[in-house]
């Protein structure tokens, strides 16, 4: 009887253990690369702002001498200043057009000489502004007689600060695509503002003189 009962008991077979998968790690390989951080613009911005403020403070605290060097062929140092400013604005426009050509913004017109033209026009434009700045700061100082002279003084200081920021930003790699065009555009607008408040004003007030 007991044997009959034991024969009716079913035993459930045990399931075999699930196979374990061992993940092999390559400890000898390089670690996963972390996302690259974009270079900071803090130093170029601080240096540019500091230069602009320093020029403004010097022009404000320095006693204007009224003495400037004249150039043969011009009637006065002031005409030298306005013509140098005109030349700087001209080469700034060349630099803008060459930049647009480099970026393909002129309807496909992108000659191979656009790059050298862009660099050299910018260099010439800046070199022409240096004697103008020396004349303004040393002979005239930071002028604020009216709205035009105040804007001219502010834009002049701002231009050199923005230019310093641009020069310190150029060597940086990995910048966002909009950084250099924006900074370059700010430099261009500042220089054209200086040109409008000096050379254009002079020509429209006193006529074209040499």
UniProtKB/TrEMBL annotation:
Membrane-traversing stretches: 41-60, 80-103, 124-143, 149-168, 175-203
Superkingdom: Bacteria
Stretches the record annotates as Disordered: 1-36
Keywords assigned: Membrane, Transmembrane, Transmembrane helix
Coiled coil ranges: none
Name the record gives this protein: Uncharacterized protein
Source organism: Micromonospora craterilacus
Organismal lineage: Bacteria, Bacillati, Actinomycetota, Actinomycetes, Micromonosporales
């Amino acid at each position: 009887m007991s044997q009959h009962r034991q024969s009716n008991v079913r035993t459930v077979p045990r399931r075999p253990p699930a196979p374990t998968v061992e993940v092999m790690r390559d400890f000898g390989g390089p670690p996963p690369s972390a996302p690259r951080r974009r270079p900071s613009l803090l130093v170029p911005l601080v240096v540019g702002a500091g230069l602009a403020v320093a020029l403004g403070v010097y022009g404000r605290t320095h006693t204007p001498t009224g003495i400037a060097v004249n150039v043969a062929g011009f009637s006065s140092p002031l005409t030298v200043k306005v013509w140098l400013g005109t030349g700087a604005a001209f080469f700034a426009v060349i630099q803008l057009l060459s930049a647009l050509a480099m970026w393909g913004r002129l309807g496909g017109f992108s000659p191979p000489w656009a790059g050298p033209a862009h660099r050299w026009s910018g260099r010439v434009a800046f070199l022409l502004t240096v004697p103008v700045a020396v004349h303004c700061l040393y002979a005239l100082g930071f002028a604020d007689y009216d709205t035009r002279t105040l804007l001219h003084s502010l834009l002049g200081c701002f231009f050199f600060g923005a230019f310093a920021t641009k020069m310190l930003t150029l060597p940086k790699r990995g910048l966002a695509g909009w950084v250099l065009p924006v900074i370059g555009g700010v430099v261009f607008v500042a220089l054209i503002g200086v040109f409008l408040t000096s050379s254009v004003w002079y020509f429209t007030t006193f006529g074209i003189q040499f």
